[in-house]
């Protein structure tokens, strides 16, 4: 078991919280014990439900008018509430825990349910169910696999326990099943466990009851025969517990000890990522191991409320936390790229007893809703965070390895062409609605480029198949959305051409003022094994059977080369070409080829680095402002991003954590005049950009933490003058672009 204590980066609080606007919808409401968000009146808008010591109330969206639906009927105090259509009439009901007596372990603790009336704002009917001393938390969930939700009831203490040690029988974790007539028939009940003490809260995860108690975090799973199996998940002595997802990995947040000062994160153990293996489609959990425990905060006073949500739209959840002891407040914590957690203060006017997170206004951003103990209030914290990168979806539903953006329709807006690799189809997605238009069928395209091949003033599409090698171009017609795009051959393995084309790049190799095409012949079989080539557009490309092919690296690019860089490395005025290869024994290198006076001849190979496991991408640029060409590279079938400083190609590690950064683009992303970089790791599933200070010192910033990629481009997609990020999502089965909001 690993225990980690990470320092928290404290963000300075501002009024209303960074990006949150405070609205108090109720004050002077007494001790507000619990809050839910549910569509109570079935109008399609989420409402807020809250309980105090004697009342159940709901606040109607969007006016937040209060409706008291139960008042003085239960023994005080009401302490917990859970929503479900109990009588299966299509309307929401509530289970309710009351008669809260935290130190009385012999009696008290009433359980009941309340049924909605035709008028949801009228008083609801109550039906008693039973008692359990110190009844404290209730939730609905299907814990026996019958497709129906059961009511799980958890007291704080075991019967007969006494302060201060609360020893003796453990708390009885009870499971109630709803009978055919829940208002009349008895509810069958069973005990899932009675071994844990001070069980302050629990969650239901994938049909299991996960309880947080003095002994740690435990999962309770019901076997088919009815026996409950208990498995320890984490050490510590947690009170509150909630589950979220960070970079696709399940995390738990707890308050430790109960009513304590610390926020603790438990990370589910997963198998190590392997960028050389086939993608798994997500983290693979490892069973039988305790979750890694990390304390991210230890200075709160009576922390009592937790809720996970993706507040900043980056694909990972943040954890909202509320505490009720002075100086009380609400904050949220975010995991940063370096693994530390930052804290952002949201409010200091809330002695938080409970909180939750939900999108109240349908804008896709979750709000925080908190209720107070000594402050006796109900507040909404409206999420007005503007993400640094806003995600836009072009397409979903198919594996694609490449996407490229350009104005293919003549309306001065960048459109997108992407390929369904497995379906062997190419689609044009015209801006701004992205409705797909089928361009071509029968080729599984792995990479692409765009250029005006035939010189008619519009842009044509170039695509490549990996094996058997094929490069082709599609001629843009006058009416690109309705007329067919004519297919033309550039090069083909079966006609004596290159084989194993993984990367394409444009560059004026022969310096005639016209772009040429650079490609690899990475396979060790065929006419040009382990080679690199450049291809010149023929004088009449529409009629030519194929393009002029020149093998400039004949047999000296082994190890399954991937992508290429283009630029003048040695300052002789002639552009050179760099490449990378991913696999041993002959690969795992970065290298460049020096162009001779006649580019049609053999070029001289210059090795940049060897032993670079999984090397894939490399580009050429001056990264430190010394007017010399450097190399920026990724290990897309390995780990990390690095740049090599001229003239000795000294390695400078930029990031060593990203697994499978199988894409790379460079440009001035932040508009400060120097070259930044962007990648998306296919295995870590993190899109990140790397901010250059102009001297070759890079800072990692995450764009998204649930996005795979095989191809990435920097393009001004919205015409605002800065570079946005276009991603072909591979395992994510999407094409997306992230709007740069610098």
Explain what the structure shows.
The protein has 742 residues and is mainly beta. 0% of the residues lie in helices and 47% in strands. It is elongated, with a radius of gyration of 31 Å.
Low-confidence parts, pLDDT < 50 over ≥5 residues?
1-17
Q: Tell me the number of strands.
A: 58
Helix tally equals 0
| Helix proportion | under 10%
Describe the main β-sheet briefly. Answer: 5 strands, mixed
Mean pLDDT, to the nearest integer, reads 95
Q: Order of strands side by side in the largest beta sheet?
A: 1-23-22-21-20
What's the shape?
A: elongated
What is the end-to-end distance? 42 Å
Helix/strand class: mainly beta
Rg, Cα atoms, Å: 31 Å
Strand content: over 45%
Provide key terms for this protein.
58 strands; 0% helix; disordered N terminus; five-stranded mixed sheet; mainly beta; elongated; 742 residues
Give the helix/strand layout.
Blueprint lengths: L2 E3 L2 E3 L9 E7 L7 E5 L8 E5 L3 E6 L4 E7 L8 E5 L8 E6 L11 E6 L9 E7 L3 E7 L8 E6 L17 E4 L12 E5 L7 E5 L2 E6 L2 E7 L5 E7 L6 E6 L2 E8 L5 E6 L24 E6 L5 E7 L8 E6 L5 E7 L5 E7 L4 E7 L8 E6 L5 E6 L5 E8 L6 E4 L8 E6 L4 E5 L7 E5 L5 E5 L8 E6 L4 E6 L10 E7 L11 E4 L8 E6 L9 E6 L11 E6 L7 E7 L8 E6 L7 E6 L9 E7 L6 E5 L8 E5 L4 E7 L4 E10 L5 E3 L8 E6 L4 E7 L5 E7 L6 E5 L8 E5 L5 E7 L2
Parallel strand pairs: 1-23, 2-27
Antiparallel strand pairs: 3-30, 4-5, 5-6, 6-7, 8-9, 9-10, 10-11, 12-13, 13-14, 14-15, 16-17, 17-18, 18-19, 20-21, 21-22, 22-23, 24-25, 25-26, 26-27, 28-29, 29-30, 31-58, 32-33, 33-34, 34-35, 36-37, 37-38, 38-39, 40-41, 41-42, 42-43, 44-45, 45-46, 46-47, 48-49, 49-50, 50-51, 52-53, 53-54, 54-55, ...
